[in-house]
């Protein structure tokens, strides 16, 4: 792959990753709640599923997913239901603790597993990622060169880009905590975030293939 082709691929993946969506909303929320440092665990959950989705597309299952409307919709509805569930949990939870120092009110290490799984489930609930990889990979693969090194480079760089985008939102969430902590909106932040997750779930369920 030429440098020009790689740069086009990197920019394409960056734009697809940085656009606000359920995963980036979760990154923002975790950044606000736990601080950017601990949200690295959530980013790893997001990246691990993203790489799995890329591997699935490479294995040819992406084509099956595109052809099978029932399978596609099943994954999509499961992901939408999980987003709505998360939104309801946040909505009905006690007032979210918003502090200028997110690290000061972190829970035990057991929460790291919860953060990882939340990011993994939210990412896995978006079957369009597999369709995206299935569509984009052939555009940047040289059929005359060895496939494994090319796929490794595409997946590796894609994972790094996804991680950076996730952490950019997490850092942003951590930085706006100060603003929320000094405003009356702080007491309503769980309602706002919960409603946004519910809206994202409904939007995912209502979206077309």
The arrangement of helices and strands along the chain is HHHHHHHHH
Task: Count every helix, treating DSSP H or I runs of 4 or more residues as helices.
Answer: 9
Query: Which sheet architecture does the biggest sheet show?
Result: none
Unreliably modeled segments: 105-110
Gap between N and C termini, in Å? 31 Å
Measured on Cα atoms, how large is the radius of gyration? 18 Å
Write down the overall mean pLDDT. Answer: 79
The number of distinct β-strands equals 0
What overall form do the CA principal axes indicate? globular
Count of structural domains: 1
Strand content: under 5%
Helix content: over 70%
Question: Structural class of the helices, strands and pairings?
Answer: mainly alpha
Top keywords for this entry?
single chain, 76% helix, 9 helices, globular, mainly alpha, 209 residues
